[in-house]
Amino acid sequence: xxxxxxxxxxxxxxxxxxxxxxxxxxxxxxxxxxxxxxxxxxxxxxxxxxxxxxxxxxxxxxxxxxxxxxxxxxxxxxxxxxxxxxxxxxxxxxxxxxxxxxxxxxxxxxxxxxxxxxxxxxxxxxxxxxxxxxxxxxxxxxxxxxxxxxxxxxxxxxxxxxxxxxxxxxxxxxxxxxxxxxxxxxxxxxxxxxxxxxxxxxxxxxxxxxxxxxxxxxxxxxxxxxx
Length: 227
Fold this sequence. Notes:
One of its GO terms (cellular component) is dynactin complex. Part of the dynactin complex that activates the molecular motor dynein for ultra-processive transport along microtubules. The chain has an eight-stranded mixed β-sheet with strand order 2-5-8-11-14-17-20-21, covered by helices on one side. It has a seven-stranded parallel β-sheet with strand order 1-4-7-10-13-16-19, covered by helices on one side. It has a single domain, classed as Hexapeptide repeat proteins (UDP N-Acetylglucosamine Acyltransferase, domain 1). About 35% of the residues are buried. It is built from four helices and 21 strands. Helix content is about 20%, strand content about 25%. A hairpin with a 3-residue loop joins β20 (about 180-185) and β21. The N and C termini lie far apart (about 70 Å). By secondary structure, it is α/β, with parallel strands linked by helices.
C-alpha cells in the first residue's frame, strides 16, 4: 500500500510587528532653511529648537552635527563641516541648568537678523571646520579654517582667512584679527603670505571651490530628509 502524504499543517499565525520604528529622542529644529544647492550627507545631524540656516553650496559630511539647542546657527556660502565636527553653542562642555535656561531665554528674545547673529553661531563664506573640531564661536570670518580637533569657545570672534591649527583651544570670548594663525596650542602669528599676496589667496580659494565640486560627485546627498 502506497504511503499516504501527510496532510499539510496549517502555518502558525505570524504576528506582525506593530511596534513603531525607533526615532531619535533629540529635538528637531523648529526651523531649518537649506539652500537648494546644500549637500547633506547621510548621518549628518541637525538638532535643537532654534533656527538653522545653511547657505549655498555648503557641505555637511557624515556624522557632522549642527545644534541650535541654545542659539541659532548660520552657515554661509561654501562652508564645509567634516566628520564628527560639532557646530553650535553648548556643543563643548555640558552646561549647568542656570546657564542653559539663561541661554535659551536670550535666544527666544532674538528677533532680528543682527540679534540672531549676536546670540548664536555664524560661519562666514567658505569656512572649513575639520573632523572632531568643536565650534561654539559667535563668528568665524570668511575663508578661515578650523583644523582637526580644535575647540573654539563660546563668544569667540575669529577674523577672515585665519587658521586654527589642529588640537588648538581658543578660550571663550577671544578675538582674533584677520589672517591670524594659531599654532602649538596658543601661539599666534599673522600669515603675511595671504595678507600681502592676493594671488596666493585666490589660488587657495580656487582649490576650495574644486573640493566643493568633488564632494558633490562623491557624496550622496541626503538633503531631502530635512526639506
